[in-house]
Amino acid sequence: MKRLNLFILKSYSGPLIMTFFISMFILVMQFLWRYVDDLVGKGLEWHVMGELLFYASLQVVPMALPLAILLASLMSFGNMGENYELIALKSAGVSLLKIMKPITVLTVTISLLAYAFSNNVLPVANLKLVSILHGIRQTRLELDIKERVFYQGVEDFTIKVERKNRDGSMLHDVMIYDHRDRQASNSNVTLADSGKLQMSKDKRNLVLTLYDGVRYDEKIGFGKNSKNSSRDKSQFRTDVFGSEKAIIQLEGFDFSKTNESLFKQGDRMKNLSQLSHDLDSIRGERQVFINSLKTRSSLFYFNKVQQPRDKRLPAIDSATVFNLDSLYLGLNGESKLLILQNASRISRDQKQVLEDQMRFIDREDTRIRRHLMELHRKFTLSFACLIFFFIGAPLGAIIRKGGLGMPVVISIFFFIIYYIVDTMGAKFAREGVWEVYQGMWLSSFVLLPIGIFLTYKSATDSPLLNSDAYFIAIHKFKKRMKSFRKKD
């Protein structure tokens, strides 16, 4: 029996490792395609890209692992069915559940490791990935000046060249606008016959060498004395040079990782204990505002604000019992107007306070739902691994097709169903349409009956996907219909 278990584990582990890395590669490529606009042209170093891909690979594990288990179980049991190994084992008295037992133990172990990964590794990977992506987004594009196009990638400068050498080392017919004077942004213009534009080794400065040029500089004054002549207000200067070198300080062209402390409070950056602790804190803050809202809406406060506060209104003894309508009708016109104005002002103030508190409570409810979603997501990954195994293994035994053909098609079909249902449930949970546990476990509730049904059909040798069985059933049905017609 030990040899049989080792044989089954060996038949399963090979496809599992292969499909896991294939799934990881496809999902990482999808990640790169999603952020390609943020990555291209930034001149990122290889170690930055390597770190980004490493953390992106860790982030896609929750999607790659269930897909790999589904595909590997389909392939392994499909291969055993296609090679008549399952028939030989069943004829020897070994049931399908016993054949699945060693792989079931392995899948349960993988599920427990998946939970540990989701709780301990994935939050750190999300934090590192967000920090790197934010730093990449803040990094400017590499210096790329095109011919006959105004380039504004350098802060406070606009550069235009008519022609460049093939290697880009020499620029011809250079025009540079200096915008550092905020009051007259186009008052400083430099024209040169040719020039060289080079980046310093530390990529912090731009070394610009110009040849045979002229600089036009107009200083415009904005003095308060309006009697000044136009000559006093404007000063024109023209400088002709044979060679001139300038150093322009660059900011934002070099990559720097964003401080991770800015993203630590995100719900996806926390483990189970942190989520539970922060949920208690958020609920406590929410309850304080709810109590304040109840206090402001109480009858005591309502009666209190009805007391007239304007000194021009008659004082009312609080111990006196009176009818409000009779009291209001007994006042003169000016007093009635003042009461209505005070009531309107107090109502507007009260409404504004209540709306502010309701907005805060809604914001806290959203935070609570997001934290609960991440808390449930720690467990849904492990459960999805089990469900996909109990879908793939019996389905592979039923269809008896190995390789990467039919199993890939069926795996993609079930995974698309899982992804659509899971996305829909997460959206409903995030928006508060459903309870959080209902939305996060919706995909598991949908696929679990399918796994149980397929396991039962496979264990009972049901010809569920056998085309011959359906052709025979259709043929029998046609015979019965013909016999009924003859009787009629």
Description:
62% of the residues lie in helices and 12% in strands. It has 488 residues and is of the alpha+beta class. About 4% of the residues have low confidence. Helix 4 packs parallel to helix 11 and helix 11 packs antiparallel against helix 12.
* Silhouette: flat
Tell me about the largest β-sheet. 5 strands, antiparallel
How many β strands by DSSP?
Answer: 5
Question: What's the total helix number?
Answer: 15
| Strand adjacency order, main sheet | 1-2-3-4-5
Structural class: alpha+beta
Strand content: 5-15%
In which range does the helix fraction lie? 55-70%
Average pLDDT over all residues: 78
> What is the domain tally?
3
Question: Separation of termini?
Answer: 60 Å
What's the helix-strand series? HHHHHHEEEEHEHHHHHHHH
* Radius of gyration based on Cα positions: 37 Å
Poorly predicted segments: 226-230, 299-314
